[in-house]
Amino acid sequence: MSLYYLSKLMFDLNRDEAVKARFAEDASRVVGNYALTEEERGAVLDGDIGLLYVLGVNGQLLMHYAALLGVEWSDYLQRMRDGVKQHGPVRAGIYALTTSPDEKVAG
Amino acid sequence: MSLVFAGVCSHAPGITGREDRAPKELRDGLYAGYERMREDLWATKPDALIVLAAEHFANFFMDNMPPFALGMGDAYDGPIEDVDWLRIPKRTVRGDAALSQKLIKQVLQTVDVAYCEEWKFDHGIMVPLHFLDPDNRLTIIPGNINCQGPPLTPLHRAWALGEALRQAADSVPQRIALVGTGGISHWPATPDSGRIDEAWDRDFLDRWTRNDKAALLSYTDEQTYAEAGQGGFEIRTFIATAAAAGGQGKVGFYAPIPIYAVGCTTATMEIA
Ligand SMILES: [Fe+2]
Predict the structure, then answer these.
(1) Domain map of chain B by residue range?
(2) Which one of B127, B128, B231, B252 has the fewest beta carbons within 10 angstroms of its own beta carbon?
(3) Which pLDDT belongs to residue A104?
């Protein structure tokens, strides 16, 4: 589990224009600079919001990464629910799902 | 001169970013609440406004996370978010490094606080400023309480920070205003975004308006997380503001607005 570095990558991508530009050019090279597990690496490279959520990325980082990928708000919420259905409950962090994966709260 | 104004308000990015997706009467009520708060704030003729927020990894990250931080720059930029996402234009905000230094020196008498000569504003500060200072005319000093990356500072230390800010404000010749920003119960940026416990919020606001220190400090983080979500950790900013003001509070507006992801709140407090 290298959630800290996965989160750090999200943080850098959200906040640093140079990292963002390098990521757009060659994502796997940027991702290679962070000590991630294969699963984490794959989740980033696939833009798999649901899996990133389940891995425990803080929502305040993940929602901006989703926006960066062009994922609209309601779709972002749905992808996290789908992630829990597919991969099981959130494994770490303080952004766990508290309702049923089939529920829709708002938006 | 002294602390001349104290208030609290919500800072959820949906308030601006998803403005048009809420029922119109709720949106209008909230926006009118901010407008009344803006009038109350400006009526006190503040020389500087401290915005005490709970930011979301705009500046501070788990590599080096200060429980408390205060800005010490002559200028700050924001918002850090995509402008189309937050729907708040970029601005450069005027700071006052010399005033910050004086305040920080005083705060340090009782509370260890990190100082920051650079600071980028995220929605935690920009949403309140968008309403309270629409023309970008105020001098702003940003403050932060870590409410995102546990371990978090205990509530009684948030109270101590509020008292320290009050002593600092009272020690300088300028007229200082303070606005705490954050949410009460909410689960932002999770799939539960929009979940709000109105009863929990109203109970919290009751303790806050009475400025009941013991009741405000009696929550545990375990209880807050279970009952009010991870967003509930932001009550620290409201608690610090109550400690600074010392008087009785008055809620200007409160209503759960699920698409904005929070029980939207504006409130002011007497300086006592
Ligand atoms: Fe927040």
Answers:
(1) 2-271
(2) B252
(3) 82
